[in-house]
Design goal:
The complex is a heterodimer of chains A (about 80) and B (about 425). With about 80 residues, chain A is mainly alpha-helical. Chain A has one domain: ACP-like (Non-ribosomal Peptide Synthetase Peptidyl Carrier Protein, Chain A). Chain A has 4 helices and no strands. In chain A, helix 1 crosses helix 2 and helix 1 packs across helix 4. Chain B contains 14 helices and 15 strands. In chain B, the strands form 3 sheets. Chain B has an 11-stranded mixed sheet, with helices on both faces. Chain B starts with 5 loop residues before the first strand and ends with a strand. Classes of the chains: A mainly alpha (about 80), B alpha/beta (about 425). Chains A and B meet through helix 2 of A and loops of B.
């Protein structure tokens, strides 16, 4: 399985594709909503693309807990098949 | 009706003739056609009898940031492009958190569409069928809803005085402008961003119009297919496009020294109560729409020098409108039908043609009706053909009629 650095890089690609945030700005401490200005609709798109990319399931109740990019990286690292 | 004067201070459009108003107007004056063969393979795949359309001259994704474009249906994209052009043309800066040139509580939007986002609906349904719910975009509903174009423009320009999206088929764009006029006259807004948009060239819409036998099948000669009032017309050509105007209280516009294209002084909206696609044979609704606009403006039919006809190039429709124009106004008016060049922009038509009417008044020139080679002898009107005609005008009407029996006439005058 990919290490956290690779997951972060992969996630940053998805965030750029969906929301137009430059990959360099997608760092672990950033909040999706407050720092990256990503709305709930884009979060659903990001989650679906992350599921496909990392082979992981992100149920809605888990998605709600992923406040920062770091939260998402940790979740993927812990749950990827 | 109150006596608040309403003027037009900005115009924007993206059409089959060009990506803005200037190129569209140049195309109308030069007699260019926006009609071409449909490049996609589906006309052959489904063996459609219609293989021509008037697609946008400029891809909307070229004018919008990538991420914004992917969140919008094509219909919403072009409404946004036309609205931003009109906004800038009116001399307003892009709104920011710190500054808006129009107080949001006094700014409204009225942008109509015939259908909204059918292409989104169909493509998302394909994804659902093929891959299940996971692949369905969370943006599906906001992209397909017919109020989407108006709503997005309202968010973009920070309009809080209300956002309307009239749906009256091919009259939607004109009804958007009429609705905006009402909003200002009723005191609800000082500035309204108004017009219409449509982007529905797809297999199912072309097939549906073809089955209704309303579209031209002159597939081997696309540029001559749309020929309003011509004896050899055989139906309209489906097009796509958007037009948006900035309507503003005249006193506000004058106080800030804005450029004024003209005034909107009246409108008529009627309904035929007759047939879902056919016009009333006596044209009662169309005649009443024009007559009501003239009455509202406090003018007489003798004052009207020009009519921008709805004329779509159908056999029955064009003749009905010609008779209605003669009944409502008389045979002294100089008539043109821009659909010869533009094709039929459906919900965008009334707005783009409203802009053309305004520019005819502003510049004192009426574009020719493209492809009008032999005037149908039953059309007893002065329809401009061949070359544009210079005419001193003070008042003009733009007609827009739609499936459902919707009739809208907008009455503009010079400033």
């Amino acid at each position: 399985m990919a290490d956290k650095e690779e997951i972060l890089a992969g996630l940053a690609e998805i965030v750029e594709e969906v929301a137009g945030v430059a990959q360099d700005d997608v760092s672990s401490e950033k909040s999706f909503v407050d720092d990256l200005d990503i709305d709930s609709l884009s979060m659903v798109e990001i989650a679906v693309q992350a599921e496909d990319k990392f082979g992981v399931k992100i149920p809605d109740d888990e998605l709600a807990n992923l406040k920062t990019v770091g939260d998402a990286v940790d979740y993927v690292a812990a749950n990827a098949a | 009706m109150s006596n608040i004067d309403v003027v037009i201070t900005g115009v924007g459009a993206t059409t089959p003739l060009g990506g803005d108003v200037a190129s569209t107007w140049d195309g109308l004056l030069a007699g260019r056609s926006g009609v071409h063969r449909i490049e996609a393979d589906w006309t052959d795949r489904f063996d459609l009898p219609v293989k021509i359309a008037a697609a946008l001259a400029e891809e909307p994704t070229e004018r919008l940031p990538r991420v914004q474009a992917r969140r919008l249906d094509r219909c919403e994209q072009i409404a946004m492009i036309a609205a931003r052009q009109a906004w800038a043309d009116a001399g307003f800066a892009e709104p920011t958190d710190e500054h808006t040139d129009v107080e949001p509580e006094r700014l409204g939007v009225a942008i109509g569409t015939g259908i909204g986002g059918p292409v989104t609906l169909l493509s998302q349904d394909d994804l659902l069928e093929e891959h299940g719910i996971r692949k369905v975009s969370p943006l599906t509903v906001p992209m397909l809803m017919p109020n989407g174009p108006a709503a997005h423009v309202g968010i973009d320009l920070r309009a809080r005085a209300g956002v309307h999206s009239p749906a009256s088929a091919c009259a939607s764009g004109a009804e958007g402008i009429a609705t905006a006029f009402q909003m200002i006259q009723n005191g609800r807004a000082d500035v309204v961003v108004a017009g219409g948009a449509e982007a529905c060239i797809a297999p199912i819409t072309v097939a549906g119009f073809a089955q209704a036998r309303t579209v031209s099948t002159r597939n081997d000669d696309p540029e001559h297919a749309s020929r309003p009032f011509d004896a050899d017309r055989d139906g309209f050509v489906l097009g796509e496009g958007a037009g948006v105007v900035i309507l503003e209280r005249a006193d506000r516009a004058k106080a800030r020294g804005a450029k004024i294209y003209g005034r909107l002084v009246g409108y008529g909206i009627t309904s035929d109560a007759y047939h879902i696609t056919g016009n009333h044979p006596d044209g009662i609704g169309q005649v009443a729409a024009m007559a009501n606009a003239i009455t509202m403006a406090g003018l007489t039919s003798a004052d009207i020098g020009h009519v921008n006809a709805h004329a779509t190039s159908t056999v029955v429709g064009d003749l009905g409108e010609a008779n209605a124009i003669r009944k409502a106004i008389g045979d002294h008016v100089v008539v043109t039908a821009p659909k010869g060049a533009l094709g039929h922009l459906v919900g965008g038509a009334g707005a783009v043609e409203g802009i053309a009417t305004l520019l005819a008044l502003y510049h004192g020139v009426v574009p020719a009706t493209l492809n009008l080679e032999n005037l149908d002898p039953r059309v007893e009107l002065d329809v401009v053909a061949g070359e544009p005609r210079k005419v001193e005008l003070t008042a003009a009407i733009s007609n827009s009629f739609g499936f459902g029996g919707h009739n809208t006439a907008l009455l503009f005058t010079t400033a």
